[in-house]
Specification:
The structure holds 2 protein chains of 2 kinds. Chain A is of the alpha/beta class. Chain A has 15 helices and 8 strands. Chain A has a 4-stranded parallel beta sheet with strand order 2-1-3-4. Helix content of chain B is 66%, strand content 0%. The mean pLDDT of chain B is 91. Among the domains of chain B are: 98 residues, no CATH class; 114 residues, Orthogonal Bundle (Fumarate Reductase Iron-sulfur Protein, Chain B, domain 2). The longest helix of chain B has 26 residues. The chains are: A alpha/beta, B mainly alpha. Chains A and B meet through α1, α3, α4, α8 and α11 of A and α18, α23, α32 and α33 of B.
Chain lengths: 310, 590
C-alpha cells in the first residue's frame, strides 16, 4: 500500500476540520495510507513576505522530517504545497543554500537531501490512484450538477517549480470533478486567484477579487465552486459570507471541498464529510446524487440472497 | 511553641498572599475591552457564572474534568508519558505526605485511631511517598538538564520550585535517618517507652538496636554475644515492637542511615536531628508562605483553569469573564514548555532570535505586561512581534496540559498592543488572514490602524516616492539593492526585464483599479525597472508590493523569464528589514 506523510499545515486542523476528516475518509476508501508526523511545523508560507530564510527553514524542516521516515509528503493545502515545492526546488538548485539550511537543521539531528516527492491530495488521486480506479469505486454519481473548478494559484504556478499540471490549460482537477458525474464548466476566471492572500491585509481589494471571481462562476452557470485548499475554501465560504453581508449581494456561489464532493459519490458516511460545517450551506447537493447507489445496494442484496441459497 | 507560632505566621502570610493573588484575577486588565470593565463587575460576573455552572447539568462535566484532568492529569499523559510519571510522582507523593504526615494530627489521627508515626503502614508509606517525590524531582532534573527536552526553558521560578521541593524532601529523609543513628534519640525512646530499669536488660536492648536497627552507640560495639542479642530481641518485642516497627520499613531513611552510620556519633553530638527538623519545618513553611507568588500557585490556578475551560468549551464568554479568565490563566501556566514544543512557527526563532516567538515565553512577557510593569519600547516591540508571529494553528491551546486558551490570549493581547502604536510589519503578511476572519466574530477596536501604520512606516523611509511628477536623478543608484536581491538566487532575473509590461497587464490587482497608479504606486514592470536601476525608494515605497497576491501570473507569463513575483517577495523582505532597522535605531537613540 502506498503511504504518505500527511501534511495538514496550520489552517486545516484549526479551522477546517471537515476538510481533514473528509480527506482521510476518501483516502481510506481508495486505499491510500498515511502517517501523521506530530513534529511538522508551519510550511513557512505566511512568512515569505517578511523573511525568506524563515520560510525556507520552516519548509525544509518539514521535508527533513518526512525524509527521515522515508515518506513522500502529501499536502491538502495548495499554499503548503507551493511552499514545500519551492523550498525543495531552491535547495536542489543551490547546494550552498542547502548546506546552510542543513547546518541549522542539524541542531535537531535533521537534514534534507531532497530524496522525497511532494504531492498534493489531487495529484495523489489523479496519478497514484487514477481516474479509472476511482470510477470503479463510485457508489453514486451526480446528475445535472455544474461545478466551477478552482485550481488555486500556488499549485499551478510557477510551473517551473511546482509541476502540478499544465499551468495554462490544466485538466487534472476537471477530470477529478467529472469522475463524480458533475460537469466541470468552462469559466473565464477559472485560473485566477481566490483573493485569500490579501484577506486581513487589504480587505477591500481581497473582496473585490473574490467577488469578481465568484460572480464569474455564477454567471457561467455553476452551482458550486469546488476547491482543494483551505485558504481558497475559507475565502469562498466564510469570507464570501462576510462579503455578501457587507456588499449586499444576494446570490452566493457556495463552495464545496473536493473530498466532500468525491466522498458523496463514493458513498462515504456524511458525518465524516462534515457537510454541515460549511458556512454557506451545501447540503442541497445531495439531492443531485443519482439513485444508482440504491440500485447497487439492491443488486448486492439480491446477490447475497442468491448466494446464501447456494 | 516554635512550631505553632511559625505555622500561624506563615499561614497568615499565605492567606494574605492568596487573597492578593486572587484579587489580581479581577484587577489585571488584559486585552480588548478589559479596561472599561470595573473590578466589581468582573467579580460578580464570575461568581454568577460559577453558581450557574454548579447548579446546572454542567456539574457532571466539572466532576469528570476534576477526576480525569485535575486528579489523574490525563492531559499530561496524552502528551508525554515520562512527564506524567514525573508529575504524578511529585504531586501524588507530596499531596499524600501533606495529608498523612504534615497534617497527621488533623487527618490521619482522626481516621485511624491507633495512628503512630512509628508503626506500619504509616512509617512505610511515608517513606514510599517520599521516595516517589524524590524520583519525580530526579526525572525533572533529568528532563531539563540531561535529556534537554527541546524548547523547554528553565527560569528562576522553575529552579526555585525544584530546589524547594528537593530541600523539603531531603531534609525530611535525612532527619529520619539521623534520628535512626542518633544515640540520644534511642535513649529518649528507651527511657520513655521501654519501662526497663535493669542495666543488664537495657544493655541487651541497646545491643539489639545497634545490631539490627542501625543505632550508633557510644557505649556498645559489635560483635555482640548471641545470648545478649536473644535477650535484646525478647525485650524489643515486649517493650518496643508494639509501637515501633523495624526501622527497615522506613526504607529510604534507613538506607541513608546506613550510609551515614560511620559518623553517627558526630551526628548525635552536633544534634543534627534537631537542626534538620528546623530546616525541614522552615522549608515547608517558607514554601507555604511564598506559594502564592511561586510557580506552585499553579496547584490552585491550573485546577481552576482546567475546570473553567472544561465547561466553557466553544461558547462565547462575556467580556468581563473573558478578562478574568485570562488573568487567572496567567497564574495557571506552569511554564512546562509543551506549547513551545508543539508550536508551528518555531523555525522563525532560528532567524529572528526573539524568545517571544515561543508560547511559553510569551506568557512570561504577558505576565509582566499584565502586572502593569512599565515596559520600554525596546521591550514592547519584541513582545508584539512574538505575539503576531503566530500561524494561529491552535496547537498550543490543544496541547496545554492545564487547558489554557492560549490562542485567544495571544489574539486578545496582540490586538491591544497593535492599537498602542508601534508599527508591526508582520501584519502585511498572510499571518493576518486569521485577523481578517476574526473581524467577523469580534469587534476589533480599530481594524485598519495597524495595517495603515505598517504601510506608512515603510513608505516614510522612501523619500523619492513623495516627489511625484519630478524628474529623478539616477545618481543615487543603490548598487547594494541590486546585489542584495539574491536571497533565493531567483530574484536576480529582474535585470533582463525589457519593459514589455506583460506582468502589469496580467496582474489581477492592477486590473482591479481604474487608476492603478493612484492606488498602487509603481506597477510590477516599473518595480522591476526600479530594481534594475537600483532605485531603492521607488522599489520599496509602492503599495503594489503589499497588495501583491503572489498568484504568480506575472512570473508565469513573463517572456523574459523574470521571476517577477519572487523579486517582489525579496523587495518586501528588504523593505521590512530596512524599516525595522530604522525603527530600532531610533529607539536606541531615545
Amino acid at each position: 500500500m502506498m503511504e504518505f506523510a500527511l501534511f495538514l499545515g496550520c489552517t486545516i486542523p484549526a479551522r477546517l476540520n471537515q476538510y481533514e476528516s473528509s480527506s482521510r475518509a476518501v483516502l481510506e476508501k481508495l486505499g491510500v495510507g498515511w502517517v501523521d508526523i506530530r513534529e511538522f511545523n508551519c510550511c513557512g508560507y505566511p512568512l515569505r513576505n517578511i523573511d525568506f530564510k524563515v520560510f525556507l527553514l520552516s519548509s525544509a524542516r518539514n521535508l527533513a522530517l518526512a525524509e527521515k521516515k522515508n515518506l513522500n509528503v502529501m499536502t491538502l493545502c495548495k499554499c503548503c504545497y507551493g511552499s514545500l515545492k519551492k523550498a525543495d526546488f531552491l535547495m536542489k538548485e543551490n547546494p550552498s543554500l542547502k548546506k546552510e539550511v542543513n547546518s541549522t537543521l542539524e541542531k535537531e539531528g535533521l537534514k534534507y537531501e531532497g530524496e522525497i516527492e511532494i504531492k498534493h491530495l489531487l495529484s495523489v488521486l489523479h496519478q497514484e490512484i487514477g481516474i479509472e480506479a476511482i470510477k470503479g469505486k463510485m457508489a453514486a454519481t451526480f446528475k445535472r450538477l455544474k461545478i466551477a473548478t478552482h485550481y488555486g494559484c500556488h499549485a499551478l504556478r510557477p510551473s517551473q517549480v511546482v509541476g502540478f499540471d499544465n499551468a495554462v490549460a490544466p485538466s487534472l482537477f476537471d477530470q477529478l470533478v467529472e469522475v463524480t458525474g458533475a460537469e466541470s464548466i468552462d469559466w473565464p476566471m477559472k485560473l485566477e486567484c481566490c483573493g485569500a492572500p490579501l484577506w486581513g491585509v487589504n480587505d477591500r481589494l481581497s473582496m473585490d477579487l473574490t467577488l469578481k471571481k465568484l460572480m464569474d462562476g455564477k454567471k457561467s452557470g455553476a452551482d458550486y465552486v469546488c476547491a482543494a485548499c483551505p485558504y481558497c475554501h475559507l475565502q469562498f465560504d466564510k469570507v464570501q459570507k462576510m462579503i455578501l453581508f457587507q456588499r449586499d449581494v444576494n446570490h452566493p456561489l457556495p463552495s464545496i471541498l473536493y473530498p466532500q464532493l468525491l466522498g458523496l459519490s463514493l458513498g462515504i458516511d456524511r458525518k465524516a464529510l462534515g457537510l454541515e460545517m460549511n458556512e454557506i450551506p451545501i447540503i442541497g447537493i445531495e439531492e443531485l446524487l443519482s439513485k444508482e447507489k440504491e440500485l447497487v445496494e439492491q443488486t448486492e442484496s439480491t446477490e447475497k440472497i442468491e448466494s446464501s441459497k447456494d | 511553641m516554635f512550631l505553632k507560632v511559625s505555622l500561624y505566621i506563615f499561614l497568615v502570610i499565605f492567606i494574605l498572599a492568596l487573597i492578593y493573588k486572587v484579587s489580581t484575577w479581577f484587577r489585571y486588565k488584559i486585552g480588548i475591552g478589559a479596561e472599561a470593565i470595573p473590578t466589581s463587575v468582573r467579580f460578580f460576573s464570575a461568581m454568577k457564572g460559577i453558581l450557574f455552572t454548579i447548579f446546572s447539568v454542567k456539574i457532571v462535566t466539572l466532576l469528570r474534568v476534576f477526576v480525569l484532568d485535575v486528579l489523574l492529569q490525563f492531559r499530561i499523559l496524552r502528551e508525554d508519558f515520562l512527564r506524567w510519571i514525573m508529575h504524578i510522582f511529585i504531586y501524588g507523593g507530596f499531596m499524600l505526605l501533606l495529608l498523612m504526615h504534615a497534617l497527621d494530627q488533623y487527618i490521619t489521627m482522626v481516621i485511624w485511631k491507633d495512628y503512630y508515626s512509628t508503626v506500619n503502614p504509616f512509617m512505610f508509606l511515608r517513606n514510599l511517598f517520599g521516595a516517589l517525590v524524590i524520583i519525580g524531582v530526579i526525572i525533572a532534573i533529568y528532563r531539563r538538564f540531561i535529556l534537554k527536552v527541546p524548547r523547554l526553558f528553565s527560569n528562576a521560578m522553575d529552579m526555585y520550585t525544584i530546589i524547594l521541593v528537593a530541600v523539603i524532601m531531603l531534609s525530611g529523609i535525612f532527619l529520619e535517618a539521623s534520628k535512626m543513628v542518633a544515640y540520644s534519640d534511642y535513649k529518649r525512646m528507651a527511657d520513655e517507652y521501654s519501662g526497663l530499669s535493669d542495666p543488664e536488660e537495657l544493655k541487651s536492648l541497646e545491643a539489639y538496636w545497634v545490631k539490627e536497627f542501625g543505632t550508633v552507640s557510644p557505649n556498645l560495639k559489635a560483635p555482640f554475644d548471641d545470648k545478649i542479642l536473644t535477650k535484646g530481641k525478647e525485650l524489643h518485642e515486649s517493650s518496643c515492637a508494639g509501637c515501633h516497627v523495624q526501622p527497615q520499613w522506613a526504607f529510604t531513611s534507613y538506607g541513608v542511615a546506613k550510609i551515614v552510620s560511620p559518623i553517627g556519633l558526630g551526628i548525635d553530638r552536633v544534634r543534627l536531628p534537631r537542626v534538620l527538623w528546623y530546616i525541614h519545618i522552615l522549608a515547608c513553611f517558607v514554601g507555604l508562605g511564598y506559594l502564592p507568588f511561586s510557580k506552585m500557585f499553579h496547584i490552585f490556578a491550573s485546577s481552576i483553569s482546567l475546570l473553567a475551560n472544561g465547561v466553557i468549551g466553544k461558547e462565547k464568554l462575556s467580556p468581563a469573564n473573558r478578562a478574568t479568565l485570562q488573568a487567572m490563566e496567567l497564574d495557571a501556566c506552569t511554564h512546562c514548555g509543551t506549547c513551545s514544543l508543539r508550536c508551528s512557527v518555531i523555525m522563525a526563532f532560528e532567524e529572528m532570535k526573539n524568545l517571544n516567538i515561543f508560547p511559553s515565553e510569551k506568557i512570561v512577557s504577558i505576565k509582566a505586561l499584565a502586572s502593569g510593569k512599565k515596559l520600554s519600547p525596546e521591550e514592547l516591540r519584541p513582545i508584539q512581534e512574538g505575539l503576531y508571529l503566530c500561524s494561529n494553528c491552535y496547537r498550543c491551546t490543544v496541547v496545554c496540559p492545564v487547558g489554557i486558551n492560549l490562542q485567544d490570549l495571544w489574539f486578545n493581547i496582540r490586538e491591544t498592543l497593535l492599537q498602542k502604536g508601534y508599527p508591526e510589519f508582520l501584519v502585511l503578511s498572510p499571518l493576518s488572514f486569521y485577523r481578517g476572519l476574526m473581524r467577523g466574530e469580534t469587534v476589533l477596536k480599530d481594524y485598519e490602524k495597524p495595517l495603515v501604520q505598517a504601510r506608512e512606516a515603510i513608505a516614510a523611509q522612501c523619500d523619492l516616492m513623495k516627489k511625484k511628477g519630478q524628474v529623478l536623478p539616477l545618481t543615487p543608484t543603490d548598487k547594494k539593492l541590486q546585489s542584495g536581491l539574491n536571497l533565493s538566487a531567483q530574484a536576480k532575473t529582474f535585470s533582463v526585464c525589457f519593459g514589455c509590461q506583460t506582468c502589469t497587464t496580467v496582474c489581477p490587482v492592477v486590473g482591479n483599479y481604474e487608476d492603478p497608479q493612484e492606488a498602487l504606486g509603481l506597477l510590477p514592470h516599473q518595480i522591476m525597472h526600479a530594481a534594475g536601476l537600483g532605485l531603492r525608494d521607488l522599489a520599496f515605497g509602492s503599495n503594489m508590493l503589499w497588495d501583491c497576491l503572489t498568484c504568480y501570473q506575472c512570473q508565469e507569463q513573463c517572456p523574459q523569464g523574470v521571476h517577477v513575483t519572487d523579486v517582489l517577495y525579496e523587495l518586501k523582505n528588504l523593505a521590512v528589514k530596512q524599516a525595522r532597522g530604522k525603527i530600532l535605531q531610533s529607539m536606541e537613540r531615545k
